[in-house]
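User: Second chain of the day. Same drill as before.
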Amino acid sequence: MIAKRKRFFTAQRAAEQMSKPLTKTQIRNKIYTYLKNMGGYKHNQLKGKSYEEIQKLFDKTYKQVNSFVPMASDDMEKGSEKKAGGSRKKTLAKKRAGEKQSEKSSKRQKIEDDAEKEELKAYLDIIPRDDVAVSVESLATKYPIVDWKTRVLSEDKMYYEIIKANRSTKSYKIFTEMLNDFDRQDVLDLYRLVKERFETASLEGYDRLLWGDLITVFEPSKDDEVWKAQQDYTLISWRLFDSCGIHVLLMDTGIAIHMLVEKTYPLTQEMLSRMLSGKLEVDNKSEMTFELLRFTRSQIEK
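Assistant: Same format as last time:
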């Protein structure tokens, strides 16, 4: 099984080098930036949300920003100036002073954030995928995953068929390959479907391999062999799929460990150090990239 999986990963990594940056990720990053700058949202409030939820927040914020109309008319302003007199001037002076102080604080915070990001870039390896066009579903036409099937053509030719609500299908050799296309909701939908089937039937062979990947992501246990044997693994690569918020450790044995970016897993201090020294592979820099690097470094410093 390990030899088969190693061949799958070799093919998958070759395919990754041939594919373009995900337009879906670029869309999400632009919306994130707008919501943070114009809507005051924090990264923790946005991560893990589906494209539909993000789009609704964007539409609401955009409408609020562009429909703002000052309440005071010219006549009201003139009357207010006469009544308020010097009091208004004092208020304006205080307001300007507060704005200047706030501006100084914002600039200082930005300098500190930029300095930290420059430091974190030392743990980053940007590997753009720019050879093959990627078809991305628009927010308005995205269909959820409703079923999955395992196809076994021969001993060396097996794949998963993912079926969506509009009955469209796409095939993947391994779970890691799916992460190029999936967002967080897709991963959650697949986890729910596989878990429901596992509760009513015994999963075997290739099905059990998929269940093992998903249970490592959502139900990690320090007693699982994948965590207990990690000191025997040699880390080949550490990669982030920010469209779904999952990062993956690929080992020399062919084992892949998939993890949610915001969740703590039973990784040893040695493995965490290997991850940072080996660098995080990404298609492009995003806020999620730096959040993951901060989180990983904080676990080492505990």
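Strands lie at 124-126, 145-154, 157-164, 169-172, 235-241, 246-251, 256-260, 280-282.

User: Great, on to the next one.
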